[in-house]
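Bug report (template v2)

What were you trying to do?
Predict the complex of my protein with FE2/S2 (inorganic) cluster.

What happened?
Run completed; filing so the output is reviewed.

Input:
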Amino acid sequence: MVYQPDGLDAVQRRAAATIPRIARIRRRRREGPQTWTLELETEDGELPQFAAGQFNMLTAFGIGEAAISVSGDPGSKGPLVHTVRAVGPVSTALATLQPGDSVGLRGPFGAGWPMKEAEQRDVVIVAGGLGLAPLRPAIYHLLANRRTYGKVVILCGSRSPGDILFRRELERWGRHIEIELEVTVDHAADDWRGHVGVVTTFIPRTDFDPANSIALVCGPELMMTFAVSALQDAGVSDEAIYISMERNMKCAVGLCGHCQFGTALLCRDGPVMAFNRVRHMLAIREI
Amino acid sequence: METRGLAQIVMEHPFFVGLEEDFCDLVSGCARNVRFEDGAYLFRKGEPANEFFLVREGRVELQIAAPGVKPITFLTIGDNEVVGLSWLIPPYRWSIDAKAIGRVRAIGIDARCLRGKCEADHHLGYELMKRFMSVLIERLNAARLQALDVYGVPA
Ligand SMILES: Cc1cc2nc3c(=O)[nH]c(=O)nc-3n(C[C@H](O)[C@H](O)[C@H](O)COP(=O)(O)OP(=O)(O)OC[C@H]3O[C@@H](n4cnc5c(N)ncnc54)[C@H](O)[C@@H]3O)c2cc1C
Ligand code: FES
């Protein structure tokens, strides 16, 4: 392969994309323990278009910046929606922002879910924990274009009933006659009447055509590896299994190398990647 | 007539798919139809493991309970799955509770009867053991993932 340096324009464009715009919090909603959904708007009302699965870099001023997936509807002209779980300094600062507070915004970045490739095929969505946030835009897209896709199966796992994200929406999707939805938790008290068990064990029990389907998987990496194995066992090819590799990002525009994963830069080539492109790297323990 | 009906149900139950017809007859000779109403226990921790169940319809929750602590459900079992593994290995005693969520229809299989048939015919025993081992391994892998608490918030 011949090394072809990017033209100056492209480099300048990418450098410009490292400067955040100012956005404001319009609303915040508690989703579960330490998890909040934020609605963002800009002064001029202009919001970037995004594709399902893409992420933005959000800055909590004076603290730092973090990659956060867009969790809203790609078809909506409304505010930009993100769901943040407070795990460290930046995400905690973001999750505690109040309406009217400002936040740095740049993006959207990265490759999203393969909604075009999935057309006319069955779509199996496997979400674990916060992994449902980057998958929600894909679900909105599938619902808005229901006739374009085959069966739609959503398998959604959480730690406990209190940790289930987007509960009201899940209830609505569960009533949708053209969607098969299973929600499960890892453990529950006696008053929970839903499923208990690991989300990946639902894959062999689900009815879809493995030869003509696409699987979209997002969650903790360990959960994704179990999901991939179950999908492979069900007969889905590695090319048709997409996972979101959410390793930490810095520049998000392919300049700094912080997100390098083997030969890929996850901010540019990912975060969503077909499993056949990452399987050899996931097998290397050191990365 | 009842036994023939049961033999058919046993043979068609996904857990026994591929089991030779003669073996299905042996299994169904130990089987009965059972029904549990919402909240009824299929078995409780500490009781002798004398009967296991093939769920036909409904959902069963497996729970661990301790004195003074609310029971924790760690697995629910649904249509076409099997409830009860401890009947296979001494001391043949349940280590968990199994409770019906809503109405459950199942085939109950007399464990002592089936253990006797497996002792008498090791080929049958091996066929059953293979089936139970795959359930056991799937549940062990799932339990590992649950124990790792992958969705947990880091300390
Ligand atoms: C493409 C992409 C999309 C992302 N989308 C979202 C999103 O929609 N919502 C969101 O809340 N986060 C998302 N993240 C994760 C977020 O960017 C990181 O959690 C980030 O490190 C938070 O910074 P921090 O300073 O709060 O925590 P850090 O100081 O970086 O981390 C604190 C501790 O939390 C651990 N940790 C970091 N991230 C996670 C996590 N996701 N789950 C469990 N433990 C974690 C770290 O290992 C460390 O031990 C995404 C990351 C990427 C790369
Ligand atoms: S985050 Fe800088 S290259 Fe990807």
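What did the reviewer find?
The radius of gyration of chain A is 19 Å. Chain A touches chain B through 32 residues (CB under 8 Å).
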